[in-house]
Amino acid sequence: MSENILIIGNGITGITAARHIRKMSSNNILVISSESEYFFSRTALMYVYMGHEKFENIKPYEDGFWKKSNIKLVFDHVTHINTVQKQVNLSSGNVLNYDKLIIASGSRPNRFGWKGQDLHGVQGLYSLQDLKLLESNSRNIKKAVIVGGGLIGIELAEMLLSRNIEVTMLVRESGYWNNILPEEESQMISRYIMQHHIDLRLSTEAEEFIGDENGRVKSVITITGDHIECQFIGLTAGVSPNIDLVKNSGINYNRGILVNEYLETNIIDVYAAGDCAEFQNAIPFRKNIEQVWYTGRLQAEALAQTICGNRTAYSPGVWFNSAKFLDIEYQVYGLVNKNIPGEKNLYFENDEGNKSIRIVYTDESVIGFNLMGIRYRQEVCEKWIREKYSIETVLENLGEANFDPEFFRQYEYYLIKKFNSLNPGKNILLRKKRKLVNSLFNNSAQS
Amino acid sequence: MTQNFINIDLPSGNNFTALKKTGLAMLSVGMLFFFISFTSVTEVSPLLFFILSIILPSAGALIFFFAQLKSSLPGVKKNGIQFMSATNRGLLGWTIAVFLTGMYILIYWFPELLENLIRIFDPLSIALTGNPSNQWFLYGTLYTIAVLVMGVRMLIHNRHNKYQIIRTLSVMFVQLTLAYLIPMFIQNGFFFSYFWPLKQEYLFPSSYEYLSASGGVGMFMFFWAAVMSFIATPVLTYFYGKRWYCSWVCGCGALAETLGDPYRHNSDKSLTSWKIERWMVHSVLVIIIIITALLWIDNTNDNFILGEFVHSANKWYGFFISAMFAGVIGVGFYPLMGSRVWCRFGCPMAAILGIFQKYFSRFRITVNGGQCISCGNCSTFCEMGIDVKSYAQRGQNIIRASCVGCGICSEVCPRGVLRLENGPLENRFELNKEYLR
User: Fold this and answer.
1) Which of B92, B367, B378, B409 shows the smallest number of beta carbons within 10 Å?
2) Contacting residues of A for B4, CB less than 8 Å apart
3) What ipTM goes with this model?
4) CA dihedral B331, B334, B337, B339 (to 10 degrees)
């Protein structure tokens, strides 16, 4: 018998759930969004603003895909969830019944109650509506201030730079994103930000935003008393779960909608996943609210199994993430900068100071990789971490992990040289450098 | 922390440097002289007008690109490409398209209107070949200059990517030598970098007769053409994919990868266009195979009843496919349909290479685990109109007949997901089930 599956939110989490439920069942699937008619890649909004892509280009599926997949899309806003009668009310006045409800309503930018935070020209960047607002807010302006570091902060800085707008970044931490990045990598990115003529001010926070007579922001005062003139303020000090819709519904929430490892809420047949969900018990070394594209997708894949009768706990495996800081790509696998007892770090940075490899390991095995400006293969790094390979074995075979394009300079040799010099008595040799000739006849897909 | 400032574009809007202005001024004045060169005033001094209308704008463009190099950090350079009139099918884009299309029509069918322009190429032509210039010398020279000048732009824009640097140097070198200087010196117009069926006539009986009559060198040329078509093509494609030719050697590819680079995002990515592409490109291949076969039958059989038909079919093929499609539309429509219209919808060589690439090649674009964020940059900048992200987001290696291996998808990917690789044939179509479903 087919059930009515109602999904609130058409981001990566809601859509992944819908697609996987469709693959496994003939349930009626309906996805509600008040943000956009069709699924788009949130992380790619910046490329639309910078003129790399059109909005059409950041839709992962052609519009005809949804009809073909028999996934119904509703462009409307949920105003109330009635968990007793299993109904949701929409802005349009329509009422929809469900057998199972998935809430994947995402996040919204943090606003920490700064004085003046509601002035014109002050905004966060998360939704499609935010992007449209940014388009009008940033027109004909000369100077912008970004409050908060992190991934969205640097993306917003890059976006504004592409329109020749001067940018000042106020970052609370003493180095860019150094609560996540190890010290050297944080320094590298801080340096790189300044090379782009972004005025990076570390250990600084905003105190107050000042408006002009029209209610438009004209300056910001920092906690150190600095006065910075600007016509725009970007709020990028993190995001919080978007959970207004569950208030007064009987669904338990704290900062996010509370779920167990099966992504079940306190109410039967109501589930939450992605940015809006908060795990009652966090997985070791992970946050209990995960606000990353990949985790949203992985949660949705587990949830789809549960919805289709195969109750499956969210068990995401080895942590990974990636990003791009201006022109420096970043990839991380496993546990990096977590201060694990007994951990050691092997770090190499090139002379130009824009590429680095870090391997985190213990006496037993390798536990993490952090790459800046160098691409590594996820399959290989994960296998080494999961199967607890020793640092020596990993170094010998490090060529297998390199995923940079052909002809790129490879730095594995220098990393191993450093390991040998730091560990007298060790003489590790790089077993196989990734070479074009190797790829022609042998049977591992490398060149 | 010390502020390590280097001289890059200042966001304050003062990035239109004096050097850029100088380059643009030279380009503009040179363009003006180019149009003046359509008049008989060039008779005063062909060499002077060659310098003013060809060398001056080329040097201006190079200075402009050099100024960009000085004022930017290495990295992906795509800002505003969807906003600019010249690259987003706006007014300037259409103007450029009409101008390019018009130049092709004039060169192919109305060279007498270009008489004065052709004369300014005489000094160069006489130096290289000993003969006065004609429309084909004009065409070859402009084509080569476009590849070299826009090749420098490509090198500067992609200076952080060694694959792009080596590949661009390769197409620039091949165009300058095999497709320009050597044919000029040997004077029989034979290009060592084009093969049947792209240059269909190289394996026609008429070529065999013509080349074999000119002795050892001619025989070598025919032998070279046959070896490249029947042996090198499958073998090299097995090891490297069709990129060894389409984006490293071929002259059409050379122009597409240099002059056409600013337009690569204008190729259509829809499933419908893919369908049209498959029908068209394979039809052209079938037609030219049949024409070639029938010409040989006619050549060996005096009473072949289709003899007259096949000769006239060959003429029509030359007009519609080689001239109209490959030339006029193939290049003229760059700003409207992207840089690979001909390669994608018409080139029979690309069709053959594509069949090998799909079924008998170690080449593929590998997807890195589950890292795709569906941002769409790879698809947007695929000049062949492949919806790369539709593969990447489900963890499937990209093995498409049309992929020319230019490597731009891998470059513009902000998450390091894509890599051009040569690997074993087994399981290369397999989905990366561990990460994405």
Assistant:
1) B92
2) 191, 194-195
3) 0.95
4) 90
